[in-house]
Amino acid sequence: MGSPHLLKQAFLLIGIKKYSSKSKLRVTQEKVYAVDVAMMNQRENTFASDNLGWRLETIVLIQLLRKCKQNGWDLYYLSDRSGECDFIVCNGNTVLQAIQVSYDISSEKTYKRETNGLLLANRHTKCENLLLLTDHESKDIDKCGHHIAVRTVYEWSTSI
After folding, report:
1. Are 130 and 118 a contacting pair, CB within 8 Å?
2. I need a surface site. Which of 88, 101, 132, 142 has the fewest CB within 10 A?
3. If we measure between CA atoms, which residue out of 18, 20, 16, 6 comes closest to residue 62?
């Protein structure tokens, strides 16, 4: 296939920049997604649970991009050596929300990774609006003194 830059120009891929207070990192580091989740059918293990998570994350990305564009907000991802948070929504220098996406959080390992990603975002940004989007689970949890809203992607997408 072509280079990521050309594929982005053709609207087949979309990238979001890394959240950082250093502008050089925001400009040079990017996470890239396929615009159409059907393009993921070419991957190995197309219907494996990991792939369902990628699909769900891409669906959330598209919805977030629409919402951010309407409101003049910026969208980033956050990553450091200890973990990653899928999406950081900002209005200028103010972080509005940190969002993690996981198809299924029933396994302890996945639950821990996703909630730790939100706590990482809180440490870096001081944002308390922490959201974990899943395919089928909705509840509120408290972890390490922080409230995390767990919502289904369907519930979230119909409310924004």
Report:
1. yes
2. 142
3. 16
